[in-house]
Amino acid sequence: GSMSASDTDESDGESLVDQGEYAWRLDASAVSPVPAHYPLDARGTRRLVLGPAAGGGKAAGDGKAAGGGVTVDLVSRRISSACQAMSVYGRFDDGVPSAGLATMEQVEMDVTLYYEDGRDENGGGGNGGSPSRVLLVEVQRRNGCPVTF
Questions:
Q1: DSSP readout, 41-80?
Q2: Taking residues 98-120, what's their average pLDDT?
């Protein structure tokens, strides 16, 4: 199908799969900080610096670079787009910051988005407010062969 303007990220040359109503458009207010005493696996977690709220959905580099307007919506659309491109089944809800995924090889995993803790209540953003937040994307394999996927 053809790409629509809302599903194309022109700043880094990456095109998202046109998913129409099936895209995961996660509401940023649904994402919460990492729970206290929750051990994140460094191998399965990626750290993305979100840009200013007025970023307009444009990303810097591959989404791992600081600033540039990476948004929760863009990250969630990238996840659902990649799943569709790789034929990975996903159960996405725009109001829930986690999704269950399953590959054709019966590998099951969960992807969950968190905000990095230490922003407001822990005195974070030492420059008089925090102009950007950090989004953590965690993927955990729940079942299936680790070599397969």
A1: -GGGEEEEE---TTSTT---TTTTSSSS---HHHHHHHHH
A2: 89
Residue labelled with tokens 């996840």: 79
- 120 compared with 50, residue with greater pLDDT: 50
Using CA atoms, how far apart are residues 141 and 149, in angstroms rounded to an integer? Answer: 9
pLDDT reading at 91 higher than 90: yes
126 — pLDDT class (breaks 50, 70, 90): very low
CA distance 148 to 131: 40
Please report where in the chains the tokens 């007025």 appear, as a residue. 54
The distance of Cα 85 from the centroid of its chain, to the nearest Å, equals: 16
Cα 69 from chain centroid? 13
Separation of alpha carbons 81 and 15, rounded Å: 9
- Give the SS3 label for residue 61: coil
CA 110 – CA 104 distance, rounded (Å): 15
Quote the CA–CA distance of 133 and 48 in Å, as a whole number: 9
- Region of 55 on the Ramachandran plot (φ > 0 left; ψ -120 to 50 alpha; else beta): alpha
Q: Is the separation of the CB atoms in 60 and 9 below 8 Å? A: no
